[in-house]
Amino acid sequence: RHPLATFFHLFFRVSAIVTYLFCDWFSNSFVACFVTILLLLSFDFWSVKNVTGRLLVGLRWWNQIDEDGKSHWVFEAKKVPTIAASTEAEARIFWLGLIICPVIWTVFFFSTLFSLKLKWLALVIAGISLQTANLYGYIHCKLGGQRSNSRVTSRFFVTADVPKRQTRRISEDHIEEHGKKGT
Question: Where are its TM segments located (predicted)?
């Protein structure tokens, strides 16, 4: 059981939404409201991606840059043979929070757009982006985590072989240089 992780999974999400709805009541400063909500959204993104996803449902995702500078997305799912009733409830809370909040931010987008409160539009777009990025990552984890595990493992062994390949390249370059000098 992970009650603290469950609490923070919902706390930052709900706090950002409540602050967005009632920020005008507590502060006249647009900048203070904007920064507060953006910080809550950022804390939510980080905590869901790095902590609650691992603890509550055994999923994680990240972006990895290889030696060539290419970006690779890695989606991982932990094999769990049996799920206890408490962790099943936590998993439901995780998925409901993950799905409902981007829908709410999408509703905020249309209400902001139609009410012509364009200064809030950037914040709402940031909320949609951060929320849907986590949703997208965890859906990929859930649907294809096993396939990515083998990719991660194979990449690990390939990178363990890098010093051998680099030594081989250096010796080949050395041979080419001698070949050029001899001709």
Answer: 26-46, 93-114, 120-139
pTM of the model: 0.71
* Bridge-based pairing state of the strands 71-77 and 59-65: antiparallel
Question: Could you tell me the residue range of the domain that residue 17 belongs to?
Answer: 3-179
Q: Give me the number of domains the chain comprises.
A: 1
Exposed / middle / buried, residue 44 (Cβ in 10 Å: 0-12, 13-18, 19+): buried
Token pair of 58 as six digits: 């055994």
pLDDT tens track for 85-133? 457 888 899 999 999 999 999 999 999 999 988 889 999 999 999 999 9
